[in-house]
Amino acid sequence: MKKISSLAMGVGWVFSLSVAGPITTVPWNGHPGAATFTFDDGLHSQTTNLTFLNSMSDVQVTFFVCTNSMDFSTNSAPHMEYASKGHEIGNHTANHKNLTETSDYNTEISGAASKLRGMKRSDGSSLQVTSLATPYCAQNQNAKNAINQEHFINRGCGGSGITGWNTEPDWMQIDSHYWQASSSVQQFQGSLDQAANGSWHVQLNHGVGGDWDAISANDIKTLIQYAVTKNLWVASFSTVGAYLRAHFTIDKASSTATANGFKVTWTSPHAHMPKSVPLRVNIEGAAGKTVTQKGVVVPQNSDGTYTIEFMTLELEVGASGTAPTSSASTQPGSSASQPTSSASAPIEGIMVQMEDYMQGGEGLTYSDLDGKSDNTGYRTDDAGVVKVGTDGYGIGYTMAGEWFSYSVDAPCEGQYSVVARAATGNANVSRFSVSVDNVAGSVAVDVPSTPDDWNAYGEVNGSGTVKLSQGANVVKVNFDESYINVDWIKFAAADVQCPAAIANRAHLDLSKAGVKCEIFDVKGQHLKAKTFSATSAQQMWQDMSAGLKPGVYLMRYGTGNNARMVKVRK
């Protein structure tokens, strides 16, 4: 598959070349275009007059705030409440200085970024802060270089605010359409019309119904609603920007042959890319093969695309891996024929690599209290990832109270014993525990001491069994004591046999009335329940995810534990 793309060589230099690769990103996450609404300076009028966003669960905006000036310094709580609902907080420097008139980048850029990253949402997770907007739209090459040290993307201003899909932009100067006193709704609707033809519209706003360069609350609501009616992808600046930047990287990634198919690897284009960048892609040569990332199967979407995690940095086609929750032929409601054999199939152990904790972020899918790791580069969040042996990874530098969540797919329901490969150099036996989403109780794993040697790994049996349901389970590993290294955990069936029909994922017929759907968070807390009829799993998720904060959730539907899947709310 050949296409014309472009490659950025340093800041501001772009040239085109012909590239070949098996992965092509679906433009704008499957929408005809994208739209981002940004609000500068952290003004109180913004949080006061944008409350209508609370009823738009699929719309996220970006607030670029100044940490030491403007209203954000004294009215931070309202903006952080919006951050807790999924909206982005970006850097607008510490004191709103013109970056062409100061060289104090350490304070204005790095200091502000550090302060923002230390702030917490209501769920305890930290802000990522991966983008910046240049004050006064002013920057020179030195400023660009300084911004690039801390942020993967910068928003400028002064033009049409339109960025295309096929030509790689200057990531340190993404254009925006600036709302001023003389602006009109009709002008900006024209920009949104242009975006609907395959581009990204970025709008710069300041006050909302007050302060300066104010847009009325009704006008900004009208424009956001207009973007939604045009079926544009209305998302934050970093979300769309990361999707676009990942596209220019992954579409150029070439493949290497393997015994069963091929493998594609790539590198992140920037150290401050968001920790999770889901991409909707087409994969050439994947027909009839299994697609995996780090050994976990990626199910095919109903339209033949795949939703992969860009920051996993590799993909394999034709490889074996953990069974998918769903696939094109076994999606709920599918008319595909199902096996009818009643023969029993043995269950092999389910291996969980500790470094492959779920994507989502601090406080959502893991808690890393000390921030230490071996700086392996294995993943961008690198929360406690350590080297194991010459080419393996695990979790270490653990502190009491830390925890990590994992998606574990079981072929059938039953009791599973827990085995871990772990080590501790503590003077005494040290404990961590394993629990499963909404099931009460946990299994303790006591790791024997090898004084002052945290690399003497050995297999350790847990104190009992855990119950896994058929399909996706969220497993939580909690460190009851500090300084334990864990390479992997394996769940071994305790005298459990699966009927072949179940092992091959018998589907759930959703055409029948009375299908119950439930939502749990990664800590096992029951959040929502509703009964549906004549609908699909995807439609149920769209309904049930409304109002949820960004994060990772377990959706269970059907009678008993018939079907379960892990879903991410962005």
Describe this protein with a few key phrases.
single chain; 570 residues; alpha+beta; TIM Barrel; Jelly Rolls; seven-stranded mixed β-sheet; five-stranded antiparallel β-sheet; disordered N terminus
How is this structure best described in words?
The protein has four domains: 32-243, TIM Barrel, CATH 3.20.20; 244-317, no CATH class; 344-501, Jelly Rolls; 515-569, no CATH class. Strands 4, 5, 6, 9, 10, 11 and 12 form a seven-stranded mixed sheet that branches. 45% of the residues are buried. α3 packs parallel to α4 (141-150). The chain has 570 residues and is an alpha+beta fold. It is built from nine helices and 36 strands.
Please give the number of β-strands.
Answer: 36
* Approximate shape: globular
How large is the share of residues in beta strands? 25-35%
CATH fold call of the largest domain: TIM Barrel
How far apart the termini lie comes to: 30 Å
The amount of helix comes to: 10-25%
Q: In oligomeric terms, what are we looking at?
A: single chain
Structurally, how many domains make up the residues? 4
From the coordinates shown, what is the CATH architecture of the largest domain? Alpha-Beta Barrel
The CATH superfamily of the largest domain appears as Glycoside hydrolase/deacetylase
Largest sheet: 7 strands, mixed
Query: Treating each run of at least 4 consecutive H or I residues as one helix, how many helices?
Result: 9
